[in-house]
């Protein structure tokens, strides 16, 4: 079986690494997707609204828990330096978690009232716990990326998914507490699984063998941080301080970039909750969760592998080619699926999740362009830390953050419906992501016209593939309760599967 799987994997190193990482992630996310129809029948939209608020808080705080030093772990050529950065990161995580715990103990009631979610107060004690697990997991994950231990990361995704869905399904009698516990404990299971799988730094193993842990002699570093020559040092306080200074742009700029990114996304359900109520926040939360699952599976997998490969490509002068090729593959993979899924989203949500969730399908149609452009753009933006373009990255994320606030706040006053507000939000963020993609390609040394050409060429093929569905919509009339609609879906699905197989074969040809 293992040999058969090995033969199915692409020969190209980059594609093979993505396949391994995505494979485990797909298995984990499949569990989440399969459990979603059950969860939507066990919990109310209001319950999911509370989960959305908690997840938003955790998502925002998780950006600052390590001050973004985890992003620097794959960058140094010297492993001792990377080990010192990881140790620094863990110390910061512990300190930030302690501060969060004190804050929650003192101010959990005002925080819940500020968020217009008083029912959340009794669950906020789980926030520091989730923050601790997330911070440690980030350190371990980026160390695994540095050492290219992608199977270990994939296994943790599966472990997390099993833990999350198992607790949420089995503990439904606890109400929203089970949803939140599932998220927190699932993250903790990922920490345990990854810690057991990854390799320890060489210097730690050597130091342990020589009984030198904590007592290795450290020589003074030279003034030039990039060309410093020193004796071997494993977790010396001096080197930890040096690495903290050498990569100080990560806490000073990258932290704000990450915070703006997380706030721009995580504040959306919070603002929807405040302006439109818990049901609207629940609709948006579950829709974004379902829509982002396939995107996050491949996008995160490609992004993690791309980040490590981009470090090497930058040193070799081939970064531009890597960015353009990766972006083209993502366009080919995602565009037909997004167009097809957008057309049938309301009907799929209606049939799978129940009549109560048909509105979520309309929301899925609205945010589809946004999700697609985010998917094809995000991996290429991982070059900003490598190139030291922290200020530019911050500019884009602040734009995303400010527009998200404006779209919900102003939209609630200008538009009569919640759906119109979401559509306005999606269109604006789609434009921001497109501009960001073109700038990223330019920074990497490529031509911005190339991704535009790829979008146009593959967009025409995808539109042509979906055109039968548009005709069948007009012919079938009401989608619900009409038997011939099922035949229409089967026919169009066969067309899409055929084209998708062809496109995937083209992708395989390009990457091998």
Question: Mind explaining what this structure looks like?
Answer:
It is a single chain. The protein is mainly alpha-helical. The chain folds into two domains: 8-218 and 226-247, no CATH class; 248-512, no CATH class. Helix content is 80%, strand content 0%. It contains 18 helices and no strands. Helix 3 crosses helix 5 and helix 12 runs antiparallel to helix 16. The two termini are 22 Å apart. Residues 207-232 and 478-485 have low confidence and may be disordered. InterPro entries: Poly_Biosynth_Transport (IPR050833). It is found in: Cell membrane. This is Membrane protein involved in the export of O-antigen and teichoic acid. It comes from Candidatus Kentrum sp. FM. Pfam families: Polysacc_synt_3 (PF13440).
Comma- or semicolon-separated keywords:
512 residues; mainly alpha; 80% helix; 0% strand; globular; Poly_Biosynth_Transport; transmembrane helix; Membrane protein involved in the export of O-antigen and teichoic acid
